[in-house]
Amino acid sequence: MTEHLWIKDPIATLGDGAERGFVVADGRITELVPKGAEPVHPMHKVFDASRHVVTPGLINTHHHMFQTMTRAHPAAINKSLWPWIASIYPVWTKHVNAENFRLAARLSMTELMMSGCTTASDHHYLFPRGLEHAMDIEAEEAAAIGMRMTLTRGALDLTGGEDSQAIAPGGAVQDDDVILADCERVIARYHDTADGAMTRVALAPNAPFDVTKRLMRETAALAEKHDCRLHTHLVETAREAAFARETHGMTAADYLEEVGWLNDRVWLAHGIYFDDAEVQKLGRHGVGICHCPTSNMVLASGICRTKELEAAGSPIGLGVDGSASNDNSNLMEAVRHALMIGRLRYDAETVTHRDALRWATEGSARCLGRDDIGAIAVGKQADLAFWSLDELRFSGAGDPIASLVLCGAHAADRVMVKGEWRIEDGAPIGVDLGRLRYEHGRASKAFLEAL
């Protein structure tokens, strides 16, 4: 017999018509309970949610988990994107290996889940010798913690040099045929298009300045063949927008069209420097944008045109971005930053707390091509974040939903994925946080050896 769990009487939820909560069964939301009502079916279990504001689980659509090994790295701090990445790339290429990558993935996923995140996408593009099976490591770690994962198989096939705009050291790049063969392997093993899937796959050449047009076209063909998503960095800086015009003789959006990427399979990281015509073109084709507010502020890259892009038809999602340009993996913090930086670009009326929360849930789900997560509604997966308002920062707050963003919620009290508790009382189930901190910290010391 199917067990029904009533999430009863939350302080507030982001589910319309769920004033008295909702019912979870078989990993899904099966009923919303409106004000003054009781569930239709007999309940086997009841969870008293009267201490909690309940939101859909947050969805992270852009990350670089290996970078947790170089947070606040002395060689890279206080720099904009290009000096930053030039200083840190050789460190990554020399020191990232299978052992510390596993710890980085474990720590990143744990941090994300503790911040209310239930689904993540990690744009992993660094495959030095010995790390050829990075996607398998991430799949294993996601399964262990119980997080949904889009395994985003990145790639680099151009090496930096005097006549190249690329910046990757030789040890970071792979041959196109090797990349494409591994893309096929990862798709065959992990890409699950079923409703409620725990793992899916996306293909993600790193950025137009360090991959070939051949790789862009071939990955687009693979995505069409296997019904998977496409992802890349695009116009994070003004320099990249200029690169497209100077090197390819066209805008970045026109470049996407030329290589077969101007379609609704695609979501882009950053997307800051699109002109008006590009915004409209991307919107017409349903190209998603992952807004990375924290990283963009740290590196002073600029402010994404979220409202114009969304109005044009582009889904807007949120991402924490790399843990060496953000320096943490907290998606709820990114929600607050999206609100604040959005108001700097627009005004206090145009960007609301509900906009920022929507981007981190429904918008992010659309970027990942998923209609089964990102909302509290009947039929959606029971991926949920429960927020206590017991901390001093919430005292005096009048609007409980707004307080999560304006008062700076930082850690979820409970997290549920597919109807299963994964965080209880702020702690991830089955994770020894002290041991993880020790092992990750010890491994990260190797990345300081060159100093």
Automatic annotation (TrEMBL):
<comment type="similarity">
    <text>Belongs to the metallo-dependent hydrolases superfamily. ATZ/TRZ family.</text>
</comment>
<dbReference type="InterPro" id="IPR011059">
    <property type="entry name" value="Metal-dep_hydrolase_composite"/>
</dbReference>
<feature type="domain" description="Amidohydrolase-related">
    <location>
        <begin position="53"/>
        <end position="421"/>
    </location>
</feature>
<dbReference type="GO" id="GO:0016814">
    <property type="term" value="F:hydrolase activity, acting on carbon-nitrogen (but not peptide) bonds, in cyclic amidines"/>
</dbReference>
<keyword id="KW-0378">Hydrolase</keyword>
<dbReference type="GO" id="GO:0019239">
    <property type="term" value="F:deaminase activity"/>
</dbReference>
<dbReference type="InterPro" id="IPR006680">
    <property type="entry name" value="Amidohydro-rel"/>
</dbReference>
<protein>
    <submittedName>
        <fullName>8-oxoguanine deaminase</fullName>
    </submittedName>
</protein>
<keyword id="KW-0862">Zinc</keyword>
<dbReference type="GO" id="GO:0046872">
    <property type="term" value="F:metal ion binding"/>
</dbReference>
<keyword id="KW-0479">Metal-binding</keyword>
<dbReference type="Pfam" id="PF01979">
    <property type="entry name" value="Amidohydro_1"/>
</dbReference>
<dbReference type="InterPro" id="IPR050287">
    <property type="entry name" value="MTA/SAH_deaminase"/>
</dbReference>
<dbReference type="InterPro" id="IPR032466">
    <property type="entry name" value="Metal_Hydrolase"/>
</dbReference>
